[in-house]
Amino acid sequence: MRAPGRRGVRIGYARVSTDEQNLDLQRDALTAAGCSRIYADEGVSGVTTNRPALKKALVALRPGDVLV
Fold first, then answer.
1. Is 48 or 39 the better-scoring residue by pLDDT?
2. Residue 3 CA, distance from chain mean position
3. How far is CA 2 from the centre of its chain?
4. Strand pairing report for 35-42 and 66-67
């Protein structure tokens, strides 16, 4: 249920696993998708569950928000 008078926002999450990879394309796509906030993990393998920026993004979510 959405908080009264509050419109949900789109929160983006991006991740690259190596220092050679670049987050720019993901950030551009998330911005184009209407994300007002973007959290990003760099150098974090997809195998690990320790993703600090993802944890922050999940904490930032409020009722009615969408994680992209």
1. 39
2. 21
3. 20
4. unpaired
